[in-house]
Amino acid sequence: MTSARASREYDLAIVGAGIVGLSCALAAARRRLKVVVIERDARACGASVRNFGLITITGQDREGVWPRARRSRAVWQEVAAQAGVRIVNQGLWVAARRAESAAVLEAFLRSDMAEGCRLLTPSEAQQRCPNLQTSDLHAVLFSPHELRVESRDAIPALARWLAREHGVTFCWEPAVHAADPPTLETSRGPVSAAAAVVCPGDDLATLFPERLAAAGVGRCTLQMLRLESPGFALPGTVMSDLSLVRYGGFASLPEAVALRRRLETEQGEHLAHGIHLIIAQGSDGSLVVGDSHHHDAGPFADERIYGFLLDEYRTVIGSPPPPVRERWMGTYAVAKDRVVLIDAPSPRVRLVLVTSGIGASTGFAIGEEVIGDLFG
Ligand SMILES: Cc1cc2nc3c(=O)[nH]c(=O)nc-3n(C[C@H](O)[C@H](O)[C@H](O)COP(=O)(O)OP(=O)(O)OC[C@H]3O[C@@H](n4cnc5c(N)ncnc54)[C@H](O)[C@@H]3O)c2cc1C
Q1: Rounded to whole angstroms, how far apart are CA atoms 67 and 227?
Q2: Ligand 1 centroid vs 6 CA: distance in angstroms?
C-alpha cells in the first residue's frame, strides 16, 4: 500500500482503519472522492478485528440499530465477494431453556421485526441443529438474517480492496495529533485534506477528548475465547437465554421482565459480569465464544469470567467445551444515552464512534450517513 505524502491533497482524510473508518472510506470512494485513511498501527488491531464478526439483525434495537443493521448487511453481501471476504455462515439460533425465555421469543415473533424468523419446537430444533442440548429446551428462535465473517481476515481484506479497486490511500503507522482541515497533524508530518472524519474507536484521549467527555463516552471491556473445533458444524451462530435480556429488541419487551427476574436468581453472577453467550463458528471449525462486559475494567483478564462462559457453553451444547486455543480482551466505546455518536467539531470534520458494541452490524450504514451529511 502506498503512503500519503504531505504534498498530496485529498478530498477526505479518515482517522482509523477499523470498520467505521473503512465504511466511511467506501462511501466516499463511491462518490469518487480522493480519500486517505490514516491508521496509527501497522494494521487494524482494535475492536473491529477482536469481535465475533457477527452482523446481527434479529434482536437489535428498533431505534437506530435495526434499520442500519439491515442496510449494512446488504453492503456486506455486496462487497464480500468483490473484496475476497468469506461469509462463513448465516443465521442465528437462540436456545430458550426457560418458559420465560420462550415467552419473550413468542412476543418477539408477533412483532414486525421477526419477519423471516421462526420459533422451533425442541424436536424441530434437534433435527436442524443436532448439536444443541435439547433435553431442557423450551424453544429455539431461528433467524435467517445474520451473517458471520472472520473479522481478522475480513478487515485487512476490505482495506486491500479499497486500495486496489477504489484508489483509497492507506497511511499505516502515523498517529494523528490534530484534525483541522485543510491540515491534519500526524507523527509523520502534515497531511492535506479538505475534510476529515475521525473514527478513533475507543481512543478517548487523543482527538476531541473534551467533546467525547461532554457526550459521556466511556469504555467497555470484553473477554473472549477461541476454542478448537468441536468436530461438528453448527448451522449458524448460537445464543442462549442471557442474550434475551441483553439485545434491546428482546429486552425491551414486557415479557423480558419476568425472564430477568428469574435469571437474577439463577445466573446472577453472569448478569453482574454482563455475560451472555455467543458461539460463532469459523471456517476451520473453531469456535469464537464470548462475551462479558465491564466498564472501567483494568488490564487483567479474570479467569472466573472464562469459567462462566465455558459453563454456559456446556449447558447449551450439552458436551464439554473443546480446548481453548486463544484468549483475548476487546474494548469499545460506550455511552448511556446513544448507540452512535456523530458529532461535528467543525463544519468540515465529523467525529464518529459506535457507542454500543454493534459496529460490525451497522458500520456500512453509518459510513453512508456520515459521508452524505459531510458532502451533501
Ligand atoms: C470483543 C468484541 C466483540 C464484538 N462483537 C461484535 C459483533 O459480533 N458484531 C458487531 O456488530 N459488533 C461487535 N463488536 C463491536 C464492534 O467490533 C465495534 O463497534 C467496532 O469494531 C468499532 O469500530 P471502529 O472502527 O469504531 O473502532 P476500532 O476497530 O477500534 O478502530 C479504531 C481505529 O482507530 C485507530 N486510531 C484511534 N485514534 C487514532 C489516531 N489518533 N491516529 C491514528 N489512528 C487512530 C485505532 O488504532 C484503531 O485501529 C464487538 C466488539 C468487541 C470488542
Answers
A1: 33
A2: 27
